């Protein structure tokens, strides 16, 4: 495992973003772990988050893109700090763009999107915290294509939960790749998390709960 991935896992735990216990997800599944990117709240945390996304995007997709797009709401700060991280690490000047849940009907920035305007031919990287069902991409991808004839280079998420998506066969990330034709990558996966934390943060009891969860919802 690369050093930056191990450091990112420790960072998620330290920031209270990744927690272990008994959680009910939006899907209704009972999960022994939960990731909440909304817990990144300090300047240092957001700085480190942007650097992690930038490093992972560079590794997975390269730097041949123009815009970092963040679906509302958590994707908005993600897109901003990722652009900052790309500039700091690689001298890459990407533009940030995000969507609104409801279109703004007044002012110079009226419309469905905020941040940079999208243009035909723009190459876009989407950033999200985690993808469980793919619902947010189903909502935001049409907005991107309606705004301009853009090319989505890929989707980067913090954590690959490595569980089946809505179809019940392949992962949510795999379903998105099949549906839209662009690659999906993550900074770390739950396999990485277990490898890094087993025997410390992940106690034998937590490990047993995780194993039981993946016996039911894991990707074969």
Characterise the protein shown here.
Strands 5-4-3-6-7-8 form a 6-stranded mixed β-sheet, sandwiched between helices. A two-stranded antiparallel ribbon has the order 1-2. 39% of the residues are buried. The longest helix has 19 residues, at 43-61. The protein has a single domain, classed as Rossmann fold, CATH 3.40.50.2020. It is an alpha/beta fold. The chain has helices at 3-14, 43-61, 75-90, 135-147, 172-180, 190-197, 204-217; strands at residues 18-24, 30-35, 67-70, 95-104, 111-115, 123-130, 151-160, 184-189. The chain is globular and about 50 Å long.
Summarize this entry quickly.
By secondary structure, the protein is an alpha/beta fold.
The whole-number mean of residue pLDDT values reads: 90
Indicate the CATH topology.
Rossmann fold
Count of helices?
Answer: 7
Derived from helix and strand composition plus strand pairing, the structural class reads alpha/beta
Strand content: 25-35%
As laid out across the biggest beta sheet, the strand order is: 5-4-3-6-7-8
CATH architecture: 3-Layer(aba) Sandwich
Structurally, the number of domains stands at 1
How many angstroms does the end-to-end distance come to?
A: 22 Å
Helix content: 40-55%
Low-confidence stretches: none
Could you give the order of the helices and strands? HEEHEHEEEHEHEHH
The backbone outline, from C-alpha atoms, is: globular
Largest sheet: 6 strands, mixed
CATH class: Alpha Beta
Radius of gyration: 17 Å
Question: What is the strand tally?
Answer: 8
